[in-house]
Design goal:
- The structure is a homodimer.
- By secondary structure, the first copy, chain A, is α/β, with parallel strands linked by helices.
- Chain A folds into two domains: 146 residues, Rossmann fold; 115 residues, 3-Layer(aba) Sandwich (Rossmann fold).
- Helix content of chain A is 45%, strand content 16%.
- The interface between A and B is medium-sized, with 25 and 25 residues.
Chain lengths: 274, 274
Amino acid sequence: MSPDLNLPVGLFDSGIGGLTVLHALRRRLPRENLLYLGDTARLPYGTKARDTIIRYSQRATQKLVECGVKMLVIACNTATSAALPTLRRQFAPLPVMGVVEPGAEAAVAASRNRRIVITATEATIAGGAYQEAIRRRCPDATVIGRACTLFVSLAEEGWTDGPIAEGVAARYLRDLFADGPERPDTLLLGCTHFPLFKDALRHVVGPDVHIVDSAATTAQAVETELRRLGLLRQAEEDGTSRFLVTDNVARFMRSGGYFLGEAPREDAVALVDL
Amino acid sequence: MSPDLNLPVGLFDSGIGGLTVLHALRRRLPRENLLYLGDTARLPYGTKARDTIIRYSQRATQKLVECGVKMLVIACNTATSAALPTLRRQFAPLPVMGVVEPGAEAAVAASRNRRIVITATEATIAGGAYQEAIRRRCPDATVIGRACTLFVSLAEEGWTDGPIAEGVAARYLRDLFADGPERPDTLLLGCTHFPLFKDALRHVVGPDVHIVDSAATTAQAVETELRRLGLLRQAEEDGTSRFLVTDNVARFMRSGGYFLGEAPREDAVALVDL
């Protein structure tokens, strides 16, 4: 029996960063229903150990499956890097998509000189999933990972532009983009918070570097996959977005506004325990 | 039966911030054994809901009690604000000290114009424990709370001075310390991470404002209380410091170095599950 097409696409993230993926999906697929789970009680995942991240990801997915979803999108780079194969096995035949493969694909397509920098959380960089996904597509690529931990808390504070954001971006990345024959031509934003810093990053890397946003590329991949599986919703009216969080609804509403352009509607957000 | 004086003083924190309290205790009471629990799997507490913080604090205390401690120090402002009365009741007759009362006491003693600013995490400011502790001692004090969320991640990155730290300090606090008759004369650092930013904060508030460090004042209060209870360790040799963390020992070692001046010895750190 094929699933009900009106079932939502489920997304989960350690907190609010995945809202950039939800935002990109909402714009690309306005008819779909979306159900987002933010594990705000246990954010950030990015500084946690791999086993812990896998355990938390299993619980989040279990919750979305109980609510009923037709596809799962791991809207978190850290969780994708650590938990994607485990979740695919455990929840088969549910289609499970991550943010790593679409981002790696787009970065390889964008780069001419095959020198690619990945910015992400510490755990994503250490996990090596992006590096591996790029090298699988382009074995002679030079891939440099650089953890940019502070962007996460800057984004949640709403300080995504101006001198502090630019100062932080420069301190993390300027040395990698110094002039010379080894200068990378592509910067992959390997954390869902980071698209909010595009302007500050552009200021540091200059006008000629490709900045690849894994939220936008994931939304594109989700559309392709829903179409391939015959799971696109057939409806006249726009779909809904609903949100589950594990802690602090008020903070989610406020910080969520920085990611979505406007705060989620209060009656669309519920507190859950995992 | 009175407790063994060689038992350690137990400290817990959501992560590594409480190491400023351990550091102050180590210097003030070199003979004491210290046992520190950092709940690094669930940091930060500062953005979590009150009930969640109380539950986590109970588990951390239970763990230290199982290991054997002669006194508990809640080396975390957020946990002190939320959980001190609960822990005192639940674990009586174990002496339980927090960081709020010593900090409030010192701030009231320092201020001449009774205008005091508290900087802390969002949860500590919202909980109001500092404001209340100050007003209890000085009912006509003007107490202004200001959440300075980003300091926590800046400290864990080791970026505690220079233009970024100063820019962040200025963005949070400059307006409160503008010249005029209402200018506060005392700044209370109500988060254990914040003593690392003393220089950056001094740069923003100017030379004449009293900066009260709740780590140092807590160490002083712990000494007074150990003496009053006859619990000071009698020994010739220096005491030891041991560390329990709930996640990511490697990160704890690295970030811990910024707080202690040198990284903890590897054989003094153990991973535990709560």
